[in-house]
Design goal:
about 450 residues; rod-shaped; mainly alpha
């Protein structure tokens, strides 16, 4: 029959729990990888939501320049970026950078912003229409300027709409609130521009000023959305509450609200149109842009923290799984050694006892000269360092060894007694023969 080592039996018996442990560890590691990927996907979405703000700002600069240049008022207003080449180049660079960022993240990020990219395609036609417009620059071009302004606004709105859908896909409360605040702050800039332009156009170009229900309701709807967004910003909690407290442009918001209300009540802007436009047009890095940038910094920091935690957790589970497998293998090896080492030692000593020590001791006993006492030679006992069944077998073998020696001694004594009996018998026969001879 084929010999099966104990180690093989142990390995076979322990392979079942080890395989179970391996499967469980693999499932845990896989789950942590999935969790880390989900966190990374959410943080990619959240941080990608900050990207369109740069495009929006560039498109607004391009739109503002085109609207002012077409009406011949570029010398009367101080704007952040002037010139078609400058504004368009800045917009194109922002769009290209954002496209690359979205493509690098892919997946849900690309899907979320696909409608916005489709909206951006209309920029080329808007620019061609502006370049084809060759009339002298004057206020007579205001209808065309307003039409282009609205078309630019549609492009901006497509970006804002895409951005506003991002928080719906983010489960982490802090990330979701950050993306909402960044989106709302960006939307506020566009609402401010729409409110001030619509109010100014109605007050300056309409014959009766702001007097029709359509003009009043249009401005009022924009102002209502502006107030609602302000309240959402002021209701921010957690880490964003302090940011809002520090960066919220309260003066600009209140001034725009109050001046617009006054314009609706009066039906015009009064004599200080420049003051209205100046008071409702924040600096490029001020107003709601400053609030938005501060929120984005906190949002990116939160995203980095979540990613770091997810990666650390993934590594921890991988290390724990590997450690558990190594520990299980080590324990298996130690258990096997604790069994096989004493058995190997027992096998070696048993062979030595059976092949050399015991036969030599028995031969020494049996070869004891007649007339001498039988002396039992010292035969080392079999010893193993264990307290299990192997120790019981060792004790049994020692008993066998002692029994064999006792039996050899008994045989030696019996041989001596028989020899003595023969000697006595011979002496008696000799005496008997001697007496018979004497008698004869």
């Amino acid at each position: 029959m084929r010999r099966i080592p104990i180690r093989a039996k142990l390995a076979a018996s322990l392979s079942v729990p080890l395989v179970g442990l391996l499967v469980f560890s693999a499932m845990e590691v896989r789950q942590t990888v999935a969790d880390a990927n989900e966190v990374r996907s959410e943080t990619d979405l959240a941080t990608a939501a900050t990207g369109p703000s740069g495009i929006i700002q560039m498109i607004q600069d391009e739109r503002n320049w085109a609207s002012i240049e077409l009406t011949g008022l570029e010398d009367q207003y101080e704007i952040a970026v002037a010139g078609y080449d400058e504004t368009r180049s800045a917009t194109d660079r922002a769009i290209q950078a954002f496209r690359e960022e979205v493509e690098s993240k892919g997946g849900s990020v690309r899907e979320a912003f696909q409608p916005a990219f489709e909206g951006l395609e209309s920029l080329e036609q808007i620019r061609r229409d502006i370049d084809a417009f060759d009339r002298p620059r004057s206020l007579d071009n205001m209808p065309f300027s307003t039409q282009l302004y609205d078309r630019y606004s549609e492009v901006v709105q497509s970006l804002i709409d895409a951005n506003s859908r991002i928080p719906l896909q983010v489960r982490d409360a802090t990330l979701r609130q950050g993306t909402e605040l960044a989106s709302v702050a960006t939307e506020q800039v566009e609402l401010m521009a729409s409110i001030s332009r619509q109010t100014t156009v109605a007050a300056m170009l309409s014959e009766g000023g702001i007097d029709t229900s359509e003009e009043i309701s249009g401005i009022a709807m924009l102002l209502s959305a502006f107030r609602s967004n302000n309240q959402q910003i002021l209701d921010a909690s957690g880490p964003y509450a302090d940011i809002v407290e520090e960066t919220y442009p309260r003066d600009i918001a209140e001034e725009l609200d109050q001046r617009t209300q006054d314009a609706i009540v009066r039906g015009d802007l009064g004599d200080d149109i420049d003051a209205y436009l100046e008071g409702t047009t924040p600096e490029p890095n001020g107003g709601y842009w400053r609030l938005r940038n501060a929120v984005v910094d906190e949002l990116v920091s939160r995203a980095d923290t979540l990613n770091d935690r997810a990666v650390a957790r993934q590594r921890l589970f991988a290390i724990l799984a590997l450690g558990a497998l190594v520990l299980a293998a080590l324990i298996t090896w130690l258990v096997a050694q604790s069994i096989t080492r004493p058995l190997r030692s027992l096998t070696r000593q048993a062979k030595e006892m059976a092949e050399r020590r015991l036969p030599e001791a028995v031969l020494d006993i049996l070869e004891t000269p007649l007339g001498q006492d039988v002396e039992v030679p010292h035969v080392p006992r079999i010893a193993v360092k264990t307290r299990d069944e192997v120790a019981d077998v060792t004790e049994a073998l020692n008993t066998v060894q002692e029994s064999a020696l006792d039996l050899a001694v008994e045989q030696a004594v019996l041989r001596r007694n028989i020899a003595d009996s023969f000697v006595n018998l011979g002496r008696r026969n000799q005496n008997l023969l001697g007496r018979q001879l004497d008698f004869i």
